[in-house]
């Protein structure tokens, strides 16, 4: 889980450009982690249907 950027690095230590760049990188990382999480859920679901395994029922 990513924390709020303002809680990690106070604004007073960064220029406006540095802050904007860091926020952009931080958001990109969050997006990639979300996509990886979706893939992991998909593969775990596929694994549950492997040979000799019964499909999950909800």
TrEMBL record:
It comes from the Eukaryota. This is Uncharacterized protein.
């Amino acid at each position: 889980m990513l924390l709020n950027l303002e809680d990690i690095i106070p604004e007073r230590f960064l220029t406006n450009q540095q802050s904007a760049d860091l926020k952009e990188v931080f958001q990109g990382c969050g997006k990639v982690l979300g996509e990886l999480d979706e893939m992991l859920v998909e593969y775990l679901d596929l694994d549950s249907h492997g040979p000799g395994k019964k499909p999950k029922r909800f």
